[in-house]
Model the fold of this input.
Amino acid sequence: MSIIKSVVFDIGGVLIDWNPRHLYRKIFSSEEEMELFLSEVCTYEWNVQQDGGTLFSVATAELSAKFPAYSDKIALYYGRWEEMLGGELSDTVKIFNELKSAGMPLYALSNWSHEAFPVAYERYGFMKQFDGLVVSGYEKLLKPDHAIYRVLMNRYNVNPAESVYIDDNKPNADAAAELGFHSIHFHSADQLRQELRSLGLGV
Done:
């Protein structure tokens, strides 16, 4: 019999295919130019600041002042943000649905801007099946800070020793492990299914 009594999912990269390249491949004529832009201008680290609560308008204005030659392309990052959303990662959503059907309580802990999250929440049907969600933009806290994990634990009475945490970002998965979760660094649905089975879950 499994000791696991709840499962906590990250969303982007685990359940949803989010990638700025979905948008910027339409904008840049070459992969090289696009990758330079995403590594030097609209970086992953810059986007995470908005996940922590910085307003899109403020972030866009500040970055445009720093890189005026790219101001038009910077404006597209949040102006056409929805085009960065791909589809559901169907193989992982299938596991999610199997766990839900088995009666397993499911939670989300996600770094996501409070300005963008409602769009994804309405677009993807599985999002409404969570038993609880903690989203960084609303909390003004970011993974891997232990504080946001504790928000989840306290708000929903989640015991890490009896919970699985799943994230495609290794530092975030490591932080969960430090707090006592059975942490899985997500690479693929097949790998996730195998690791869940090793914890006694019937998926």
Observations:
- The longest helix spans residues 90-101.
- The two ends are 14 Å apart (CA to CA).
- The mean pLDDT is 97.
- The chain is about 45% helix and 15% strand.
